């Protein structure tokens, strides 16, 4: 949450409903089966997963006939990058033989890293199936000397070792199939029949994977589809076969609002501020998803740990990719990093698993995560004077403080000028991230920022400096960026606290996107004592933002006021995809 330069108003926000996760079922009532909330329960606890990109592109390892995929580019795209003819790529795939593949070893590595779920590419864009498909013989059992069903072995190893088995499926992009997206070097684009591809390959393979490999934790779709209806068809297909199976946000297309159970960041993306919708960031250990013999830019363990903590501190899941080598073994540098991350998780997993987004800001020394009545302070750097300073702490009494690695050694705490002070040992026990635990004596009270105005400048109100209530969520979309929506009735709202220093007339402008079917929705805009009744105007499709002038208001006196937006009635649909509200002084 961005801090604004000013005094702060303390408003009560109980720790029990931390910023990161709106829990709609009243405490104590079971979340109904077959709902997103229920499907998400394990996902929002487990936090950390292994992504594996493995296929014939791993044989090429970033090189084709002397052409090298530059480091920083994706080695699994080699067929498309060099327009390798299907015939030649298929011929190359005949040699794919990961003879040293051992499913138990891969799963044991994920487990050793502290990962709780594993997502394997069942079919990537090259169209090759890493399991025994009946759709065609272009698969690891029928097409290669390996002759084993790699996914079946991996699913069994996951079940045996208690890791949730999940798979990735490229439901649109298919450079092998004449009707799939993407191969316009072998096939005439004008002759493609995408619906035929969906019905003859994409859906049948997803069906095979959900009926032949046991319980699946989640299906990780990629690169969307042409229409919302096509995406909803896949959701129906998956949930019809396995109601508890999660679906990621990339089942739907780039510019559509979420179809599926949770939202994906862009590749290697990170939330800006805490978002309240369940989300996941797909990340890579080096700079490619599929293995490249040229890419040795492996992230050190500390960087991986910091990305994991950053993600969890903002309410997300961290899906970390490793690309195995053609023989079926993991790159040694990747193994070394994952094992060191696992050692940290062994000691500090309590601050990650089941933790939720922190209402505290990003600090120069690190990040914070919260769980139940504990706040976990993750120190990426150790204060030179060995005194930890937690600013914006507010009036939050600490019952006990200690290092997570040394719970018996209590730490003293004190507070001065709204900053919590925690004297620390001279040396950081863990140079990557030492975790200080604060056990709270009462529900945490979050100081909500108040928005000030520089002289002559407008108030810019958005998802970062507002606080939501009810079902209104701070969300992300790869086209729409960060926005607020999911509000359908007066109990759902977003509120800002302003400190007015310039009295007088202001121009009010609101920026949002609204589908045609949302046209006419009524909402209340409350500015201090004034309430404006407004009506939503359609702006186009999802995330077609438009700025509308709502006229002028007068702020007659300086001082604190609150501003709120909320639906004026109950609707069966969203009110709007809100981006910003601007109050500009008029002279
Ligand atoms: O094109 C793919 C890419 O190869 C890789 O699978 C990533 C993983 O998130 N998804 C697509 C690019 O965003």
Summarize the structure.
The chain is an alpha/beta fold and 587 residues long.
Describe the structure.
19% of the residues lie in helices and 28% in strands. It folds into three domains: 36-351, Glycosidases (TIM Barrel, Alpha-Beta Barrel); 366-440, Immunoglobulin-like; 448-585, Galactose-binding domain-like (Jelly Rolls, Sandwich), CATH 2.60.120. The relative contact order is 0.12. It is built from ten helices and 32 strands. Bound molecules: ligand FHN. Residues 74, 76-77, 222-223, 267, 282, 289 line the site of ligand FHN.
Percent strand equals 25-35%
Distinct small molecules bound, one entry per kind:
ligand FHN
Counted up, domains total 3
Rg, nearest Å: 26 Å
Estimate percent helicity.
10-25%
The second-level CATH architecture of the largest domain is Alpha-Beta Barrel
The CATH homologous superfamily name of the largest domain equals Glycosidases
User: What is the name of the CATH topology of the largest domain?
Assistant: TIM Barrel
Number of strands: 32
SSE blueprint:
Elements: E1 9-10, H1 36-46, E2 48-52, H2 57-60, E3 63-64, E4 67-68, H3 78-81, H4 86-93, H5 103-112, E5 117-123, H6 150-161, E6 164-169, H7 194-211, E7 218-221, H8 228-241, E8 246-247, E9 263-264, E10 279-284, H9 301-313, E11 316-322, H10 332-348, E12 366-371, E13 374-379, E14 387-390, E15 398-403, E16 406-410, E17 414-416, E18 419-423, E19 434-440, E20 447-448, E21 450-452, E22 459-461, E23 467-469, E24 473-477, E25 481-485, E26 493-500, E27 504-513, E28 522-527, E29 530-535, E30 546-555, E31 559-567, E32 577-585
Parallel strand pairs: 2-5, 2-11, 5-6, 6-7, 7-8, 9-10, 10-11, 21-26
Antiparallel strand pairs: 1-20, 3-4, 12-13, 13-19, 14-18, 15-16, 15-19, 17-18, 22-32, 23-26, 24-25, 26-31, 27-30, 27-32, 28-29, 28-31
Helix pairs in contact: 5-6, 5-10, 7-8, 9-10
The structure holds ligand FHN.
């Amino acid at each position: 949450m961005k801090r604004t330069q000013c005094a702060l108003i303390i408003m009560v926000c109980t720790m029990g409903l931390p910023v990161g996760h709106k829990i709609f079922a009243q405490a104590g009532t079971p979340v109904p089966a077959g709902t997103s909330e229920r499907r998400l329960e394990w996902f929002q606890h487990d936090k950390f997963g292994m992504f594996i990109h493995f296929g014939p592109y791993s044989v090429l390892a970033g090189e084709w006939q002397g052409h090298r995929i530059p480091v920083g580019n994706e080695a699994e795209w080699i067929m498309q990058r060099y327009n390798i003819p299907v015939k030649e790529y298929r011929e190359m795939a005949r040699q794919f033989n990961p003879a040293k593949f051992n499913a138990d070893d891969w799963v044991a590595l994920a487990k050793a890293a502290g990962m709780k779920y594993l997502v394997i590419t069942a079919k990537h864009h090259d169209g090759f199936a890493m399991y025994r498909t009946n759709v065609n013989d272009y698969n690891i059992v029928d097409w290669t000397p390996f002759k084993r069903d790699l996914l079946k072995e991996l699913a069994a190893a996951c079940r045996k070792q208690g890791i949730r088995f999940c798979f990735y499926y490229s439901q649109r992009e298919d450079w092998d199939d004449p009707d799939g997206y993407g191969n316009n070097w072998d096939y005439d684009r004008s002759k493609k029949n995408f619906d035929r591809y969906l019905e003859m390959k994409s859906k049948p393979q997803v069906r095979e994977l959900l009926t032949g490999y046991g319980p699946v934790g989640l299906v990780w779709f990629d690169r969307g589809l042409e229409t919302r209806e096509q995406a909803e068809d896949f959701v129906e297909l998956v949930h019809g076969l396995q109601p508890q199976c999660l679906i990621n946000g990339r089942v739907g297309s780039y510019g559509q609002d979420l179809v599926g159970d949770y939202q994906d960041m862009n590749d290697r993306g990170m939330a800006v501020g805490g978002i309240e919708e369940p989300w996941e960031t797909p990340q890579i250990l080096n700079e490619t998803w599929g293995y490249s013999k040229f890419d040795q830019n492996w992230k050190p363990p500390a960087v991986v740990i910091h990305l994991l903590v950053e993600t969890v501190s903002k309410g997300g899941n961290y899906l970390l990719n490793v690309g195995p080598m053609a023989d079926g073994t993991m790159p040694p540098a990747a193994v070394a990093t994952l094992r060191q991350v696992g050692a940290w998780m062994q000691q500090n997993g309590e601050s990650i698993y089941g933790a939720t987004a922190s209402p505290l800001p990003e600090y120069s020394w690190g990040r914070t995560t919260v769980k139940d009545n504990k706040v976990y302070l993750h120190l990426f750097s150790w204060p030179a004077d060995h005194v930890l300073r937690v600013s914006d702490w507010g009036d939050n009494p600490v019952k006990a403080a200690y290092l997570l690695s040394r719970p018996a050694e209590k730490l003293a705490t004190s507070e001065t000028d709204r900053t919590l002070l925690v004297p620390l040992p001279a040396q950081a026990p863990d140079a990557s991230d030492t975790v200080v635990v604060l056990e709270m004596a009462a529900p945490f009270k979050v100081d909500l920022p108040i928005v000030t105005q520089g002289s002559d400048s407008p108030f810019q109100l958005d998802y970062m400096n507002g606080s939501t209530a009810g079902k209104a969520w701070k969300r992300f979309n790869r086209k729409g960026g960060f926005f607020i929506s999911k509000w359908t009735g007066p109990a759902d709202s977003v509120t800002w606290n302003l400190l007015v220093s310039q009295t007088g007339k202001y121009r009010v402008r609101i920026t949002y996107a609204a589908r045609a079917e949302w046209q006419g929705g009524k909402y209340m805009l409350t500015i201090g004592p004034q309430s404006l009744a407004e009506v939503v105007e359609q702006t186009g499709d999802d995330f077609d933002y438009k700025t509308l002038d709502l006229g002028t208001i007068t702020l007659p006196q300086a001082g604190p006021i609150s501003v709120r937006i909320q639906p004026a009635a109950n609707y069966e649909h969203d009110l709007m995809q809100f981006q910003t509200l601007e109050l500009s002084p008029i002279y």
